[in-house]
Design a protein that fits this description.
mainly alpha
């Protein structure tokens, strides 16, 4: 009986160690499921970064077109209409010409 018990202890202990590491390799904080979740978050953040970079490039281009000495009048008019008149889609502007 003790001989059978002795020969079963090493395989049982080895199986327990393998199961322990396999569990954490899949469901642990740095396991396969955590890797998939992290990759999904990375994809979302990369899309956000691309969006912010696009906005930054547009702002830099607008700033370059408004430097003293060579102001783009069309851009200036567009920005002033957006900011001063609270432009909305499908909004129509009616200019008022002063009557003399």
């Amino acid at each position: 009986m003790t001989r059978a018990f002795g020969t079963m202890v090493l395989p049982a202990l080895s199986c327990a160690v393998v199961c322990y590491f396999a569990y954490y390799a899949i469901w642990g904080s740095r396991g396969v499921l955590a890797l998939v979740d992290t990759q999904a978050q990375l994809g979302v953040q990369q899309e956000r970064l691309a969006e912010v970079r696009g906005q930054r490039l547009k702002l830099e281009r607008d700033i370059d077109h408004m430097r003293p000495g060579h102001v783009d009048l069309d851009l200036l008019e567009q920005l002033s209409r957006e900011k001063l008149m609270n432009a909305a889609p499908n909004q129509v502007e009616v200019s008022r010409v002063p009557q003399h």
